[in-house]
Here is the input.
Amino acid sequence: MATIAQQPVLQVNNVSKAFPGVQALDKVSFRISPGEVVALVGENGAGKSTLMKILSGAYRMDTGEIEIEGARVVPENPRHAQDLGIAIIYQEFNLTPNQTVATNIFLAREPERAGFLGRLGLVDYGRMREATAKLLDRVGARFSPDALVLHLSVAERQMVEIAKALAVDAQIIIMDEPTSALGREEVEVLFDIVRNLKAQGIAVIFITHRLEEVFVIADRVVVLRDGKYVGEMPITDADRDKIISLMVGRPIDQVFQREMIPESDADIVLEVRGLTRKGIIEDISFDLKRGEILGVAGLVGSGRTEMARAIFGADPIDAGEIRIAGQPVQITSPLEAVVAGLALVPENRQTEGLILMHSVEMNVIFPNLDDLSNGEFVRQQYARGVVQQAVDQLSIRTPSLQQKTRYLSGGNQQKTVLAKWLTSDPKVLIMDEPTRGIDVGAKAEVYVLMDRLAKAGIGIIMISSELPEILQMSDRILVMHEGRAVAVLDKAEADQEVIMSYASGQEQQ
Ligand SMILES: Nc1ncnc2c1ncn2[C@@H]1O[C@H](COP(=O)(O)OP(=O)(O)OP(=O)(O)O)[C@@H](O)[C@H]1O
Ligand SMILES: [Mg+2]
Here is the structure.
């Protein structure tokens, strides 16, 4: 492609960055041309986000050089990086929910400039609206500049973030795991936006753990491992195995096939009848057996997370009955749920899954304090052993058990949330997108663990947007559509097409 032969718009030379106990980046070099899409891949903790945070002014590099269009620059802070033409779209968005789209796009531009709020009073909202409408058009958004951000879906908020980047005339747009919270169709829409940015000559750096996306969207793939650049290839030369063996430094066997299916007369650990939260989930009923993995499929917004939260007592319900191991239970809070033998691995690790200012150790033992802390020294040693074991099993990359979880990479935070529940001993484990943000190698480890927990008799509910994962791990599959359970499929009768036709409401059981 002609564009790729152009002069790079961005050139990074030998950039290094250390944190206490970790060399996050070790002399990494990288370049990207206008109109090029580069996929940046690597295991959890490889240094991808750190490199992007340096480019976007959130961190300062220790050593190294950055050039934009041939000129040396040092992004001092996010605002300065924007002025240099670099914008980043984080997964945890920086939008103000109770403001309009237009206000978010333009307020974000100069939030700290003196007198701006004063001038805002004089701003011609009509012109701001008009400019916003043009930007929204460039990203193919169909909502109004006047829409409140809180009413937008994750995918739509992402569009606002991208429009914001266009508003500051970014030449380089960084997307750090932009697809991890999106459903299939939304990913397609995002890809169209990326192609559009590419056509406008913008360079896009795209980070993802879903390798199949790399082949769809990237021109070139760059691999980091342990903070080092280990190689790259044009997408035309790339295949999945090549990328994975560069990422992990060895070929891995990532196909894990669950074989055990619980006996048809296995005890039922969880019965849900008529679970309803008005306007959100409607009359959901199902059974879960001991040792069973029940996959929950559905489009984003179909009520899967809401169902999990309702069962777990995190949201109030209007009707419904729940029995655990045959006993009716009234669960009105997560604490009661835990006491009743339920555990929930939430979808959003940062806001619900972890106490970020606490250590890995504290976070992992927190749900188990009753079991593990009788105040005795022996118990403490035992607790530490249990935590260390969980950390090893999931290969959580952390300089020590005492590290605050805030400083772990995204995928390692997710693994810590998993570890927290693996060390507890629930009857029913609900996992909401358990492998989101987790690298290919670690995914296989998570599957092995889930299988082991099921074999130990725990009933598992696994919500996932990744159909291959649903098909690979589930014994039965519950499909949701608009707040209802529209089908429960046996493993044998399920394939991607059948699931999608129920999930999209084309078929009713
Ligand atoms: N602010 C920080 N303080 C201390 N250590 C940090 C900090 N930020 C990152 N690290 C460490 O630097 C290393 C690289 O982390 P980074 O977030 O760049 O990984 P990543 O490639 O984005 O991983 P993931 O795929 O899990 O998101 C990790 O070991 C991480 O724990
Ligand atoms: Mg990251």
